[in-house]
Write a structure and sequence with these properties.
The chain is mainly β. The protein has 2 helices and 18 strands. The strands form 3 sheets. Strands 1, 2, 3, 4, 5, 6, 7, 8, 9, 10 and 11 form an 11-stranded mixed sheet that branches. Strands 15-14-17-18 form a 4-stranded antiparallel sheet, covered by helices on one side. Strand 1 and strand 2 form a beta hairpin. The longest helix has 11 residues.
């Protein structure tokens, strides 16, 4: 899993006032012999934009002891086989294969009401029993802490940079293959206007081409730092804000696009802001 991206998404969730999960997973048998595919489907209550980025995730597949896993093929996003647990005491006779999300390349497209294939794999065993996706709520090995000290389960964490304020989508549960997901009322996780109004620094100009100015609107902070992230959750720079009323960040050499600024003080993120970098 991309640790920086996962940490940043956790930071962004701190800016939200409530969580609303909107993404569901399923496992399908593919036309090829012994090949299976993991799909994601988004609720029709959300409308992700083309600037939606997946920051982290994992999928755990459960199969009988003696099953052989092979030929993991990433379709949407890059995935890797992270962990394998044999016959844990909570569920003897079963194997747990966990696939970790590595990067959003090629990007996962979330289209409400449609299934998107994430990856495929081959699974064989002696009696032909099918694998299945772990249920985070009911599987005995998914209840933490477990006997192996691991963290099995399904998860997806997504941020939509095309929405203002930012919107967040995350994993909700499983659905039956080929059927619409059952979505509750409400929308995605959103950073509210009340949260926005509590900012500590104002960013301008926005859009910006050469310099981004950060000006303290409230109290001047000690031990403060601003970090710059691109849309792939890669840190592109940082500046020290400690004791400063105003600071400038040089962005002239950055490619055009959408970026995020996080402001930290005493190791805690206190503000997140988005800005658009344009050509000179």
């Amino acid at each position: 899993m991309n640790k920086v991206a996962t940490i940043l998404l956790a930071v962004l969730f701190l800016a939200a006032t409530h969580l609303q999960a909107q993404l569901f997973l399923t496992l399908k048998e593919m036309p090829q012999a012994n090949v299976w595919g993991v799909y994601v489907q988004a609720c029709d209550t959300i409308s992700p934009t083309s600037q939606t980025i997946t920051g982290g995730g994992q999928v755990t597949i459960v199969a009988k002891m003696g099953s052989v896993f092979s030929e993991l093929t990433s379709i949407s996003g890059a995935w890797d086989d992270n962990a394998l647990v044999y016959s844990p005491e909570e569920n003897p006779g079963m194997m747990y294969f966990t696939m970790g999300f590595v990067a959003d390349m090629p990007a996962i497209v979330y289209t409400p009401g449609e299934e998107t294939l994430l990856f495929t794999f081959k699974m064989t065993n002696q009696d032909g029993s099918p694998p299945y996706l772990i249920d985070n709520e009911t599987d005995p090995f998914a209840q933490l802490p477990n006997s192996e000290g691991t963290n099995p389960g399904n998860d997806l964490s997504v941020v939509d940079f095309g929405k203002s304020p930012l919107e967040f989508y995350n994993y909700s549960g499983l659905y039956e293959a080929g059927t619409p997901v059952e979505c509750g009322e409400g929308n995605s996780t959103t950073a509210t206007k009340e949260a926005e109004s509590a900012y500590l620094f104002r960013l301008y100009p926005n859009p910006a081409s050469k310099r981004l100015i950060l000006k303290a609107e409230n109290a001047i902070l000690n031990n403060a730092i601003a970090r710059l992230w691109n849309s792939n959750m890669i840190q592109m720079g940082s500046i020290d804000l400690s004791g400063n009323q105003k600071a400038e960040m040089d962005i002239e050499n950055l490619p055009a696009g959408t970026y995020l600024i996080t402001i930290e003080t005493d190791g805690q993120v206190v503000q997140t802001e988005r800005f658009l970098k344009v050509f000179n």
